[in-house]
Specification:
mainly alpha, about 0% strand
Length: about 210
């Protein structure tokens, strides 16, 4: 699954689970977690779909968060593991879900493959659902403010920018370019607003001193 599908799927699942946990969803954090496993594309020496996609690693990382935040962690944990478990394993296979117990990439007999017409259509449908849900739930307001958490959007922004610009690690179908550009624009604007406000606050504090 490409970035647009990962972001949309994780957001929609996180949004559904947030109703169970009775909390407002932090969209920038969800979007960052949805694509965070692909940070291995930016780290030299790490295999793609390796350790950062492991369910065991996810459980270990989120264990203290579960202890502190209890059930409020559920939407964010789901957003993170959805990337590897559904977005990559079920649609493509070849994911090291059990690392470090096993470095063997697990395969799944999927009905589709990455880049196929069905998979591309699925991502377009998920993107449409993402936009509709953002508008109807008014979650878009979380993106266009000066909250410092919006800086987290630099993570998914980078993982979308690299494939769409350098065609690495895989060429994105032309029909998905526009949805990717839309997500990039939203993330870039949101992160810029947050960074600008943070800089202004820092300058104000400095002037007071």
């Amino acid at each position: 699954m490409f970035s647009v599908g990962h972001v949309a799927l994780s957001y929609l699942i996180g949004k559904a689970l947030s109703r169970y946990t009775e909390q407002d969803l932090n969209v920038p954090v969800i979007w960052a977690l949805s694509i965070l496993p692909d940070i291995d594309l930016l780290i030299s020496g790490l295999r793609h779909r390796g350790p950062t996609h492991s369910l065991i690693v996810a459980l270990l990382v989120f264990a203290p968060v579960f202890i502190i935040m209890s059930k409020r962690t559920i939407p964010y944990f789901a957003a993170f593991v959805t990337h590897a478990l559904i977005g990559d394993y079920i649609t493509n296979g070849g994911v090291e879900l059990l690392w470090p117990l096993s470095s063997e990439p697990l395969e799944f007999r999927s009905v589709t493959r990455m880049g196929s017409a069905f998979e591309t259509g699925l991502e377009l449908a998920l993107f449409a659902m993402l936009i509709i849900t953002l508008i109807l739930s008014r979650d878009y307001k979380n993106l266009f403010n000066t909250d410092k958490k919006n800086i987290f959007l630099l993570i998914p922004l980078c993982t979308i920018f690299i494939p769409i610009t350098f065609r690495y690690p895989i060429k994105i179908p032309k029909i998905l370019v526009i949805p990717n550009l839309i997500l990039m624009s939203i993330m870039a604007l949101s992160a810029l607003m947050s960074l600008t406000n943070t800089l202004k606050e820092s300058l104000q504090i400095k002037n007071r001193i």
